[in-house]
């Protein structure tokens, strides 16, 4: 099992534990379930001239469309999304981040999906001309693509790549911008993972808590 020390990130109180547990269990399930994982992050912005949705209807619509699009090619997809509201954000007051995991044996470069992401997010908002959805650049040293991280459990650089995976993924779990947004519904959601993976995430959290 991946043993990267997450103590600093989870105990510095800058991250929400519920989001951290959901992300950790999703990523570790993906690592065990797929021989090779391609992981990347989306940012989906909400144009200010389109009224904010008070629920999660639009991100649900986008993820349903994205899953259907991947399913047409028999691509396995796991995901986790987080809703954010911040007047200081360069991507706009209201936006989503999505952590995506695909089978790396089927897709090698997430950048090839950029037009599909943009189009489906536009359809979800009801206006393709004003929507902006993009695949974030990660720029991991040694990675052959700057927009994602390919991880294989048997690889000699597994721990190195997983350090970068968590460094990028835990951004979705930060407390900042998730506390005072004026919207209904959950602040996050994602793929269902087995109870075993959730239990392993809880054990990991228990290991790093103070007083052990």
UniProtKB/TrEMBL annotation:
Cite the Replication-associated protein ORF2/G2P domain residue spans from the record.
42-131
Pfam families per record: REP_ORF2-G2P
Q: What InterPro entries does the record point to?
A: ORF2/G2P_dom (IPR056906)
Q: Protein name, please? A: Replication-associated protein ORF2/G2P domain-containing protein
Q: Which organism is it from?
A: Pseudodesulfovibrio piezophilus (strain DSM 21447 / JCM 15486 / C1TLV30)
């Amino acid at each position: 099992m991946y043993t990267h020390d997450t103590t600093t990130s989870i105990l510095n109180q800058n991250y929400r534990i519920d989001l951290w547990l959901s992300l950790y269990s999703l990523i570790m399930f993906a690592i065990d379930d797929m021989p090779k994982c391609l992981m990347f992050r989306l940012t989906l912005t909400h144009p200010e001239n389109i009224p904010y949705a008070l629920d999660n209807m639009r991100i649900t619509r986008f993820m349903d469309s994205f899953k259907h699009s991947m399913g047409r090619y028999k691509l396995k997809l796991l995901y986790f999304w987080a809703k954010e509201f911040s007047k200081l954000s360069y991507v706009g007051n209201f936006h989503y981040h999505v952590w995506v995991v695909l089978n790396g044996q089927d897709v090698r470069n997430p950048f090839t999906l950029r037009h599909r992401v943009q189009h489906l997010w536009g359809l979800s908002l009801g206006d393709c001309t004003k929507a902006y959805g993009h695949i974030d650049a990660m720029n991991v040293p040694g990675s052959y693509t700057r927009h994602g991280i390919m991880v294989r459990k048997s690889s000699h650089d597994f721990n190195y790549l997983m350090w970068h995976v968590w460094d990028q993924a835990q951004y979705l779990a930060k407390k900042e911008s998730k506390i005072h947004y004026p919207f209904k519904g959950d602040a996050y959601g994602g793929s269902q993972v087995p109870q075993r993976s959730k239990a392993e995430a809880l054990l990991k959290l228990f290991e790093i808590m103070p007083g052990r």
